[in-house]
Amino acid sequence: MVGRLGLLAGPLAFLAIGLAPAVDGLPTAGQWTAATGAWMAIWWLTEALPPAATALLPVVLLPLTGAMQADDITRPYASETNFLFLGGLIIATAVERWNLHRRMALWIIASFGSSPAGIVLGFMVATAAISAWISNAATTMMMLPIATAVIAQFGRTDPGLERDLAAPLMLAVAHAATIGGLATIVGTPPNAIFVGAMARIFPQAPPVGFLQWMLVGTPVALVLVPLTWLYLVRVASPLWKRSLRIDGAMMREQRAALGAMSTAEKRVLAVFAVTAFLWMFRTPIDMGGLIVPGWSQLLPLPARVGDSTVAIAMALLLFVLPSGQNGQRLMDWASATRLPWGVLILLGGGFALADATRVTGLAQWIGSNLGGMAGISALAKVFLVCLSITFLTEVMTNTALVSIMMPIIASSAAATGTDPILLMLPCTLSASLGFMLPSGTAPNAIVFSTGYLSVAYMARVGFALNVLSVLVVTAVMFTIAQPVFQISLDAAPAWSLH
Fold this sequence. Notes:
- Helices cover about 65% and strands about 0% of the residues.
- It is mainly α.
- It has two domains: about 1-50; about 50-495, no CATH class.
- The chain has a two-stranded antiparallel sheet.
- Helix 17 (about 340-360) packs parallel to helix 20.
């Protein structure tokens, strides 16, 4: 029903905004861009169409209304950030194809003891570590059979423990998948949207590097995983009172069933490790007086090499290297066709909307009308952004939310003399931290489908975790992100004024 209403409401909002009387200071092209953004937001919110289909609206609407030329609005769909994400998806698919992810997960879980609380921590660490490189939804789907097998094992021996363990373990898998995605640029689409938006809205700004993101995203994940675990086992359930030691025979059986690591697994693991190394050490790293040179400095024009260069090069290598099994390669096109191509279109739609907002003058107009935050402290600004985005993402997909908010927040920052990164980065991080509702994230929806969880339980636990995540992200912005991104707390940087 909501989708049907949204299907009609979207174009009606488009016409109402686009055909409304001219707004003082807003160019006609900017008005039609606002109308396009409203149509996209309504369809994304109501899921009237698949999100990727909605992301194609700018290609049709902006040229037809004269707001932008067709070749200009289609260019963002093939941005450098999209190719970075594509390469990461291909590498992740190869990891899944040869079952390396399952081996990694079982190994980590087995390393965290045999108490109920320890098992939950093991699942969270394994899930978060894998989700940093593989999509949150795919990681959750991979971990879910292992988690349900553990729960079923206790159903045969201790129904009480099964009842106490099921709900927190399901939430542990979902929330760890969400939190782990913050650690790297390729961990979840909003991260890539932030990187792409920075490059397109502020072309004079220093590019956001893979390691630079990890220096902020990984600490957020490292803090939130143990805090979430403590809350799940000590507040949301009585697991911490359980002194029972869990028989690890089932985990050993699952690990034994995998056998020795195959040649294909070893080669995929090597490509995975080399890719991570090349991403992290592409550009020089300033370690406070000690400069670690980046490998790109060995090239004639290092500035022309990006993280997407590494991602696609290593992805292509997977199509070349033999697997050592039946003449197969580590990656084939049949496997590549199963990639979530819609995510790339969704990213492109967000970049296109951000471009249009800037080019047509809409961003400048929004910024000039958002000067109300000028007198608020930097701490209050970050806290309010985190709080509003965290709860807004419960009813809106994080990718769509970040796509809409990036140009708006960038304009607000410019209007108030604030460093854009100070607001755009916490917005991006907070958009992935919706813990309350099944609709908040794909992992939430996946674990809710098992029947072990009620909406009331999820909301009660998730509300506390939402508040906790707001505090953590706000704290990280001023303790870690500020020096890593060289964020100015008292004035807008020069690159944001062009």
